[in-house]
Each structure stands twice: as C-alpha cells, then as structure tokens.
Design goal:
Oligomer: single chain
Number of strands: 12
Number of helices: 16
Length: 401
C-alpha cells in the first residue's frame, strides 16, 4: 500500500508535465542529422572485442567488468581508455570512437551494472560497492586484466565524463590505489576529463535525489502512462546546446536504463554514493578524503566543460583546474553537460591535440572538425590569461565567462 501511495503521488506530481506537451515528439533521430549519422556510421564499422574481466575489490566473489576494445587492425603505442557517466554505458562514446581509433587504440569500460558489466548488488554485495574508490579499484583491476597482452599499448590516456571523471580522479590520485596498481597507473601519462564531478558538494541535485529513490512500481506506472518518455525527453532537450539536435536515441537509452531493474539499481546506487552523506548531510570527513586525492594526480590533465552546463556548473571546472597540480580548462561556449554530444568533432580534436601537445607532436596532425571550428573554445590555465582554442579560433574570452 505504501508503494502504491508513493506511485500515485508521483503520478499526481508528473501529471501536469504529461499534459502540458509532447516533449518526446520534439526529439529527432540521429539518422536525420547529417553529422550524427556520419559519425554513427563510422563507429558502426569498427570491429570490437569484449572481455569480461573478473574484479574482486577485496571480496572473494568476482564482479565482471566489460572492457570493449576497438580492433583497428594494427598495433598502437597509445590507448585511450574511456569511462562513461551515469544514465549511460560505453555506447555513449559512439560519436568519438572513429576519430580516436584513426590515431590510437581505444578501450571502452562499462561501470559496474552498466552495459555488459555485472551488477555487484545482484551478486549479493552491498550498495557501497558504488563508492567512488571502490569503482576506481574495479576499473584498475579491469585494466590490469587486459593490459597483459601483446596488443596492449605502452602509454594510456584516461578519458572520463561526469561520474566517470570523478572515478578517473580517484584512479589517478588515491595514494592506496597508486601503490597497489602502480603497474597500470604508470602507463597513464595524460588524462582528459569532460565535466568531471567534484564531490565537494553541499547538496545534491533534487532531480537526482528523486531518481535515486524511485521504485519499480513508480517506473512501471510512469512508463505505461507515457510520463517516463516525457521526463527523459525533457532532460535531453534541456541538456542539448541546440534543441533541434536533441536525439530520440539518447532518450530511449535512458528510458531503458531506468526501466531495467538491474541497470536502475546500479544507477540509483551510483547517485546515492557519488557524494558521501551521513543522515542527509554531507559527510565532510569522507569528502575531504576524496578531494585530498586531487593533489596526488601527477599527470597533465585537460578538463573540458560546457559554458552552459546545468548539471554541474562551470565554476566546478575552475575549482578542479585550480586544485589539480597540472590542469588546464577548455570551455566550450553554449554547450551543456555532455560536450561530446554538443560538439563531438571538436571534443575529439581537443582530446587528441592535448595528447599531441603533451607528447611533443605539437600540431603535426591537421584534424577536420567541420562547422564546429566556427564555435571554437576558450582555454584557461591558472595564473594565465584566457586564449582562443584552436589558435585563432572564433571563441573569445567573454563568451565563456
């Protein structure tokens, strides 16, 4: 009865939204968007092999983490390791993989309970397996499991988005993990983080709080009444730079994640444990432990952020850039939380150019970013003036303040 009451309350709260318009009908198919269609097709022809790596994280029973390797037909000296955020899996990177694979090896990891990775909760483990450090440990275990092969590159660049960026920071900076996985971390010489979560938060986003507590019955009712479609469509529309490019495929993917019990439980645990709390208040001792890892990140880091990010504010990007020892911030004007969706070609170029800069290749590669070149970005380093990126780009310092 209590669950039914909660579900009815949810229906009443969402009823107005469902009645006010058909947000889902405003979404477009990626095949109807020229550059999305092109990038999707380029990704579709890339051969992949998936390895399910057993990870233990201090337990006797393993949790399999999926590592998808793009099989490019030739060996690369460098590999890009991609870690997605919440409400996603490795499919999220589909518009970047072809550009990356043309120059480097590509390894895509599914976080626990996402994509083809097993869900620790369904295997009898506690929800705290979704604490950042525990997930970071599993990612490092998974990497160790696939790096001991002849195809494994000698050098790695870590790329993480949102929660995946927060996991990446713990992988690189936590002192215990650095000691235990020195063989893996020793290969990672650069990192590019896209709107990474900083756990130093006073309060959680109310939308995420609701999502973290919604029940299976709530989801069933919302799905059958069309409310879930509308809610996800609205999220996509509000978090896309150009609403006319808001994709139906992205909404459908998120709907499926929430609808599926396994992925929903994983999502909710991620949201509950992303930022440590104790009795509905921030657990500052544990938060300070996590943020203390930032100073241990010795690799050069480029942080990408959308100037109009409504999920994690741009100010968080400035804070992280100032706290990381060797970081710079690249700001994409008008973009929202997922810059790799708003500006996929520019994002890929920003990652690859940073690798070139850090490895001494400079501007050896000329990368075509199409019409996205007109948007450009703004580069900021602590203690330095803002500058346009790429050099001579259209973006000025005022456009990303």
């Amino acid at each position: 009865m209590r669950a039914l009451g909660c579900a009815l309350i949810l229906v009443m709260l969402c009823g107005a939204l469902a009645a006010c318009g058909q947000s889902y009908s405003k979404l477009v198919c990626e095949d109807d968007c020229g550059f999305y269609k092109e990038l999707k097709a380029a990704d579709a022809v890339l051969p992949r092999e998936t390895t399910l790596v057993p990870t233990f994280a201090g337990h006797d029973e393993p949790v399999a983490i999926a590592v998808h390797r793009v099989v490019a037909g030739k060996e690369h000296s460098r590999g890009l390791v991609l870690i997605h955020g919440v409400l996603a899996d490795s499919w999220a990177w589909r518009y970047l993989t072809s550009g990356f694979a043309a120059e480097h090896g590509v390894w895509l990891l599914d976080l626990p309970g996402c994509g083809r990775s097993e869900c620790p909760i369904e295997l009898g483990l506690e929800e705290n397996e979704y604490e950042l450090r525990r997930m970071a440990r599993r990612m490092l275990e998974a990497l160790r499991g696939v790096l001991d092969t002849s195809e494994a590159p000698e050098r790695l660049t870590l790329v993480g988005h949102s929660l995946g960026g927060a996991v990446s920071l713990q992988m690189l900076g936590d002192p215990d993990l650095k000691r235990e996985f020195a063989d893996v971390i020793g290969r990672i010489d650069t990192a590019v983080l896209l709107s990474p979560l900083d756990v130093h938060l006073e309060r959680s986003d109310p939308a995420f709080v609701r999502l973290a507590t919604v029940s299976g019955l709530d989801v069933w009712l919302a799905l059958n009444l069309g409310i879930l479609d509308e809610e996800m469509a609205k999220i996509i529309l509000n978090n896309t730079r150009d609403p006319s490019l808001a994709l139906r495929e992205d909404a459908d993917k998120r709907i499926e994640i929430v609808r599926n019990k396994r992925s929903r439980r994983s999502l909710q645990a991620m949201l509950r444990y992303a930022v440590p709390h104790q009795e509905l208040r921030p657990d500052w001792d544990r938060i300070d432990e996590l943020t203390g890892a930032y100073g241990g990140v010795t690799q050069p880091v480029r942080i990408l952020w959308g100037a109009h990010d409504e999920v994690l504010p741009l100010s968080m990007g400035y804070k992280l850039t100032a706290e990381l020892p060797r970081a710079e911030l690249l700001i994409f004007p008008e973009c929202r939380h997922s810059v790799y969706m708003d500006r996929p070609r520019l994002t890929a170029a920003a990652v690859l150019d940073f690798i070139d800069d850090q490895t001494g290749l400079g501007n050896e590669h000329q990368r075509d970013v199409g019409e996205e070149a007109e948007a450009g970005a703004v580069l900021w380093r602590p203690g330095a003036a803002r500058e346009a990126w790429p050099e001579g780009g259209a973006a000025g310092s005022d456009s990303a303040r």
